[in-house]
Amino acid sequence: MAKSIELYEKNRGKRPLKAVIISHSHADHFGGIDGIFKAGLATPEDFSSGRIPLIAPEHFVEEAVSENVMAGNVMARRAGYQYGNILESGPKGKVTAALGVVLADGASGLPIPNKLIKKNWETVDIDGVNFEFFLTPHAEAPAEMVFFIRKWKALSMAEDLNHLQHNIYTLRGAKSRDANLWAHYLGEVIARWGDEVEVNFGPHTWPVWDNKNVIEYMKTQRDLYQSIYNTVLRYANYGYGPDEIAEEAKLPDPVSNSWYNRPYYGHLKNNLKATYILNLGWFDGNAAKLATYPDDARGKRYVEVMGGERKVVDAAFKSFNLGDYRFTVDLLNNIVAYNGGNTEANYLMADALEQLGYQEENALYRNLYLSCAYELRIGGNVPNDLSTISPEVVGALPPELLISYLSMAVDPKKALALGNLNINLVIKGEAKFGLELHNGVLNSVSDYQSKNPMATLEISKSDLLSLMTGKVELDKLVSGGKAKIGGDGEVLKKLRTIFDLNIKNNMNLVLPLQAENRIK
């Protein structure tokens, strides 16, 4: 963020910040908010007071938290592999991250909007210029919006329009997107602003100029996502399962051969499977799929019936020499899934993954193949410096979402040992909750206080987080006047022991999960 501001000011001069527009709930579109503060363009108080508009789509905070905090630990680990963070740049390593050359690093913040767009076609005046907004939830992101500046006939489609095929399901992990809805939104925009638009600009790829070019670009992208949806449902109704559809289905040539529909970022096979799962779930109707073992247990059984690891490796060598790298990986995964110590299997599987990666048009598939090969070569425990759960992000959570985060982090075994509890919590100046620990599950009701609580706690949000993460003792907060307690204070001290908030995110993704990463 800081570098982009520096580049702007070098070419356009220093100008006052009039507003910030956050298009959607993905971290690369809001995480750099602190760069604005560091550049001196605004202070946090400018946004919290509403002096400078901070505009975002409805449900932005909830969806940003859901994606980047609730599942952030494993998502960040997978994202590091997907974007090739652990790879050297070059012909045998990372070439690109598709939507950008590399994934931006640095701390991630969570801005809290002071203006939410809740209605389609809502107009907001920013420094004398009208911005007309259209909401596009559950397409490229769970909370997203695009806008049109009629004064300049300029359209910004956020990440709903790109010079590539996007993800219906991202391999880092997230909710699957709705291809049918995505196409519908593009059609709505064409109908609303298509006669006027002269330029489309977006956050990841280059602008398109001239009405004819913009409309053809939008229509061809619309056709891409509509044909993905149509193809999957048509094949499914014939009886094809998700794997068969991904292997056999084709899109119309004018759609798939368009340069800005190519699978540089989103992979067609992955998108077809994701659309099947979104509409029909993971199950394809074959009851055999209900009885499958996990990878490690299945692998042991396959290796045993094939005559042992030596015979499996020999068969994998033959497959590799025939150029069938997919089957090589499939064979060897049966060993690797339960025995990370067979270096011959590890290295051969790494060789096959690298060959798959070198042949990929898709940047994310390439990065994942090569990153998993790297894990196999070094024996696991690949370092990870990527995280979306920064103290700044967690500290910025609204009270309701902070309580949800803490509930998710409860260790059920510890909670069951503690028994059932009933607690009233007041977060100073912000919210109050009735908390109930019951059957090892922490539930909450906002704006509610139990008539007969076992204990009460009044505390600030930041001090509550410090207390639950073990950074400060309750007695110290009470003696310092930062917390008030009522009832049985020992209940509150015990409650803090049930939260599992220090999960490592260096987990293996190919080799067996490390012992220190397993739930005890």
From TrEMBL:
Cofactor(s) for this protein?
Zn(2+)
One Pfam family this sequence matches: Alkyl_sulf_C
Metallo-beta-lactamase domain location: 2-204
- What is the superkingdom listed in this entry's lineage? Bacteria
What keywords are assigned to this protein?
Answer: Hydrolase, Metal-binding, Zinc
Q: Name one GO biological process term.
A: antibiotic catabolic process
In terms of InterPro entries, this protein maps to: Alkyl/aryl-sulf_dimr_sf (IPR038536), Alkyl_sulf_C (IPR029229), Alkyl_sulf_dimr (IPR029228), Bact_Alkyl/Aryl-Sulfatase (IPR052195), Bds1/SdsA1_MBL-fold (IPR044097), Beta-lactamase_class-B_CS (IPR001018), Metallo-B-lactamas (IPR001279), RibonucZ/Hydroxyglut_hydro (IPR036866)
The lineage, from the top, is: Bacteria, Pseudomonadati, Bacteroidota, Flavobacteriia, Flavobacteriales
Q: What is this protein called?
A: Hydrolase
